[in-house]
Amino acid sequence: MPSLTAPAPARAAYLVWAAALAVYVVAVTGRTSLGVAGLQAAERFDISATTLSLFSVVQLAVYAAAQVPVGVLLDRIGSRTVLAAGALLLAAGQVMLAVVDTLPLALAARVLVGAGDATAFVSVLRLVPAWFPARRVPLLNQVTGLVGATGQILSAVPFMALLLAAGWTTAFTSLAALGVLLGTLAAVVVRDRPARERDSVQPVGTGPEVPPAAVAVPPRTRVPMRAVLREPGTWLGFFTHFVGLFPANTFTLLWGVPFLTAGQGLTPVAASTLLTVAALSGIVVGPVTGELTARHPLRRSWLVAGAVAATILGWASVLAASTPRPVWQLALLVVLLTVSATASNVGFDFARTFVPPARLGTATGLVNVGGFVASLISIYLVGLVLDLVRPDGDYVLDDFRLALSTQALVWAVGLTGFVLARRATRRRMAARGVVVPPVRDVVARILAERRDRS
Ligand SMILES: N[C@@H](Cc1c[nH]cn1)C(=O)NCC(=O)O
Hints:
- Helix 4 (79-99) runs antiparallel to helix 7 (168-189).
- This protein has helices at residues 10-36, 38-44, 49-77, 79-99, 103-131, 137-166, 168-189, 225-230, 232-263, 268-295, 300-319, 327-344, 346-354, 360-389, 397-405, 407-431, 439-453.
- It has two domains: 8-192, Growth Hormone, Chain: A (Up-down Bundle); 226-433, Growth Hormone, Chain: A (Up-down Bundle).
- It is an all-alpha fold.
- Mean pLDDT is 90; it is low at 1-5 and 205-217.
- The chain is globular.
- The protein contains 17 helices and no strands.
C-alpha cells in the first residue's frame, strides 16, 4: 500500500489545480455571460425580461440535474476527462448561441452551457484532496470558489467590452475559443492523482479537540451508491450547501440589482458597486472560513449555523423597514451573503470527511445539488410573488419586501434538514467512537487549563 503521509510534489499539485481552476473560471464566465448581455439578447431573440429569466432557470436546472451523473463519472473516469469534455460542451453551447437567432435554439444552446458548466467546480474539488494534504483542503476549496467568482468579472468587463465593440457573434465565439483552449490545456496538464497516490485519509475526528483517527481506505474500493445516500454526513453536506448558497445566488443571479435599484433607489452603478463589494469581501471571508474549518472540524456545523443566522438577521433588518436603507446597511447585507456562500462550501468538507474516497465525486455532486435546487426554488418564489403583486413589472420597495421574505420558507426547509442530518451524523460518529464534547464542556476545560497555568 502506498504511504499515507508522503506529500505530492507541491509544484505539480499547484500546476494541476491551477489548470483545472482556469476551466472553472471560464465556466463561470460562460454561466454569467448572458446576464450581462441581457439587453442584446432581448433584442436578438425578440423576448421580454421574463422570458429572458427563463434562460437562467433552464441553465441552473440543467446544472443541478447534471451534478449526480457528473459526480458518478468523476469517480469512474476522473477529473481530467470530465473537465476537458465539459469545457468542450460549454464551448459548443457558446458557439451555438453565437450563431442562432431563434428562442428554442438559444435555449438548447443554454442547455449545453449548463451541462458543460456542471462539470467544472466538482472536478476541481475532486482533485484537491487527491493532490493536497487534508489540512489544506478546506482553504483550497474556498480559494477555488473565490477564484471561480472572478469569472463574473471577466463577463462583466472584457466580455461586455467585446460585445459592445464587435457584436454578439464575435463575443460568444471568443468565449467558446477560450473554453477550447483551456479545456485542451487541462487535458494536457491535469492528472487525476499524483504518481504516489494520496489515500485521502481525511476522516472527521481529527483536529485540536480529538486526536487524529487516520483510517486508510484504498481509493478504488467499490462503494455502492446507496452507501453514499445512507451516510448522514452526505445529507449534512447537502443541507449545508442548501441553506448557505441560495441567498447569494438569489441576489447575484437575478433579484439583487432590481431590488437595489427599483426597491432601494440606488443607481445601477451603486448597485453594481455593492455586488463588487460582495465579491471582494470573499477575499477575506473565504480564507478565514477555510482556516476555521480546517482548525475546528468538529465545530464546522456551528460555523454554518452562525453564518446562516447572521444572514437571516441581516435580511430581516433590511426587509422589516418600509423605507430605503442606508448604504452601509445594504453593504453589510451583501457581505453577509458572501459569508453565507463561503459557509456553504463547508458542505463539501462534510462530504470529504464522511464519504469514502471512491465515491467522493458522487457525494460532492450531491452536495452541490442542494445549493442549486434551493437557489432555483428561491429565485422562482421571488419572481412568483413579484408577478402576483405587480403584474405590470413596475416594482416598488413593498413588492420586494414581500417577495424576498419568501426566502424564509427556503431557510425553514433547509434548516430543518440541516438539524436532522446533523443529529443523525453525530449519532453515526458516536457509533464509530468519535464523541463530540459539548461546547460548554470544551469551554469549561479550556478555562480550567488557563486557571491551572496561572
Ligand atoms: N459554494 C459555491 C462556490 C462559492 C461561492 N462563493 C464562495 N464559494 C459553489 O458551490 N459553487 C458551485 C459552482 O459551480 O460555482
